[in-house]
Structure formats: structure tokens, C-alpha cells
């Protein structure tokens, strides 16, 4: 009887481990496909993003970058040569960047400032210029440390900066609403 329990336990563990390994292999395969695409960096812009726990490019104009159901790169984005790999193929936490032709684009992104379960959706429409590196970063703005305990305990605004060659071009902040905990991103002057 103990042998039967052992085999059931063993096959359960192997099945779970196999599923996790398959997910890692599929991400490595996606990274390999990205590396196989021809380099089209002439007359393009390079755009990356960062947040506390990571970020994803979801869509650029009408091209889906990440499949909503599988959370993997789409074939269309890879074949168009829009995806660039940051880091190594073998890293579990490798990030992807996008390569775009100059011009006005709508970029939809998901940021994970706290954990991978809490997503912040952000859409940006901007005229991108050739020969520049763009970086979109999400962060929590520091608040003044003076005042009452309630004011100090309240989290700061959640902000997104668009950087062009490490120089801030645009800033969008969403103040924390005490009643709902929600708000909208509003562009601020830099």
C-alpha cells in the first residue's frame, strides 16, 4: 500500500515539475525565435520599460505583442521583427523591448509595480523620433514626510515617465484617492 502511495505522490510531483519545465522551455523557445529574426535596427527606435516587478508591452498600434491567454509573444510581433530581447535567453526574468519605425504610435503596456498579480494598464500615444532610445518607467512618487500621521501613511502618486535617451520627456501621475483607491493618469509638466 505504501508503494502505491509513493507512486501516486511521485507521478504527481513529476507532473507538476514537468508543467513548470514546459513553461520555462516555451519562454526559452520564444526568446530563441526572437534571436533568429533579422536585425532591422537601421532607421528604427528602441523602446524598453521597467517597474517594480516588471512590465510587458501588450500592443503597439494594431499588433498584439503578448497573447492575452497564453502570456507569450505573438507570432505576428516576432515575424515583424518588433521584439528585442534584454538579458539572456536562459534567464527566467528576461525582459522584452520593442523596435519601432519612427512616427506616431499607440503603445499599450502592463506594469507590475508591486507583484505579478497586480497589473497597472497604461496607454501612451507619442511621436517617436528615429535614432533614439526610449524607456518607460513606473515608480511611486515620494510624498512629503511632514504633517499628520494619516497624511504621511498615505502612499504617493503612481507615476510613469517617458525617457528619451535618459532625459524625461513626459510624466503621467495618478494620485491616490483615499475613498476609492483608484484614479486616472494625468500628464504633468516636467
Write the layout of secondary structure elements.
Blueprint: H1 2-36, E1 45-50, E2 55-60, E3 63-64, H2 75-79, E4 83-86, E5 95-100, E6 103-111, E7 120-128, E8 133-140, H3 149-153, E9 158-164, E10 167-174, E11 186-188
Parallel strand pairs: 1-8
Antiparallel strand pairs: 1-5, 2-3, 2-6, 4-5, 6-7, 8-9, 9-10, 10-11
Taking the sheet with the most strands, its summary is: 7 strands, mixed
Tell me the total number of β-strands: 11
Can you tell me the residue ranges where pLDDT is under 50 for at least 5 consecutive residues? Answer: 5-10, 17-25
Distance, first to last CA: 71 Å
Instruction: Indicate the overall shape.
Output: globular
Q: Strand percentage, roughly? A: 35-45%
Question: Which H/E pattern describes the elements?
Answer: HEEEHEEEEEHEEE
Approximate helicity band: 10-25%
The helix-and-strand class reads alpha+beta
Radius of gyration: 21 Å
